[in-house]
C-alpha cells in the first residue's frame, strides 16, 4: 500500500474502518454476469454504457437518500444503465451487503460491489458480479485479484495515476477504472482520466469514475477512451429530494445520441 500521508482525513477514516471489518468464515462462489458483454450490448443499442451507483450518501455528498435500493436499481436499469454499482461500506456511505443482495436479485445486469476491500476474507461478505479493488490501498494486488477470480468475481481495479495503472496491469487487471477524484483534497478533475487513459492497452475494459455530472462530461470521457462510465451522485442527486432516477440515468446514457 502506498503512503497515507497524502490522503484526505475522510479517506484515512474510511481505511481505518475497513481494517476493522473482517470477513465471514465461509467462502463465496460466484457465477458472474459479464460486465464487458453488458457494455457491448449497451453500445450496440446506441446507449452510452453507464454503471449507475446506488449510493445512499458519501463524505462528498450534500445529503442522503433512503430510497429502497432495489427500486432505485430497477429505475436505473429502466433508464438504460448497463450495470449497477452498490456501496456496501456501512460507516461513511450507509451501505450494506444486504442492499447489494436485494439489488442483484432485482436486476439482470452486472452488479459491482463498491467497498474498501483490503484482504481476501473481505471478498466473502456478499455475492456480486464484480468487486472493486483500489490499487493504492492493497498491499498484494496480484494476490487479491487472483483470490477474487478464484471465487468467480470479475475485478474492477481502480487507479488514479500512471504508477497505479502500471501496478494494475502488472497484477493482471483486465477491467480498470480511472478515478478523477484526488484522494488528498477530494477534488475532481476530468483531466485525470484524459492523462492516464492513453496508456491503457486496448484490450482492457476502461471505465471513467467520478466527476461525470452532465451529458457533456459523458461525451468528453467517451472521446478520451472510456468504454463505460461509473456515475453516482449525478443520478442519485443527493439532497435534491425525490428526483427521477430513471430520467437522470436516461439523460446520461443518451448523451452521445442526443448531441
Automatic annotation (TrEMBL):
GO biological process, one term: L-tryptophan biosynthetic process
Keyword Amino-acid biosynthesis belongs to the record: yes
Catalyzed reactions: 1-(2-carboxyphenylamino)-1-deoxy-D-ribulose 5-phosphate + H(+) = (1S,2R)-1-C-(indol-3-yl)glycerol 3-phosphate + CO2 + H2O
One GO molecular-function entry: phosphoribosylanthranilate isomerase activity
Enzyme Commission number(s): 4.1.1.48
InterPro entries: Aldolase_TIM (IPR013785), Indglycph_syn_Halo_TrpC (IPR054875), Indole-3-glycerol_P_synth (IPR045186), Indole-3-glycerol_P_synth_dom (IPR013798), Indole-3-GlycerolPSynthase_CS (IPR001468), RibuloseP-bd_barrel (IPR011060)
Protein's pathway: Amino-acid biosynthesis; L-tryptophan biosynthesis; L-tryptophan from chorismate: step 4/5
Enzyme class: lyase
Coiled-coil features, chain-numbered ranges: none
Residues in Indole-3-glycerol phosphate synthase domain copies: 27-239
Keyword Amino-acid biosynthesis: yes
Keywords noted in UniProt: Amino-acid biosynthesis, Aromatic amino acid biosynthesis, Decarboxylase, Lyase, Tryptophan biosynthesis
Pfam family, one: IGPS
Listed NCBIfam families: Indglycph_syn_Halo_TrpC
Family, similarity comment: Belongs to the TrpC family.
Protein name stated in the entry: Indole-3-glycerol phosphate synthase
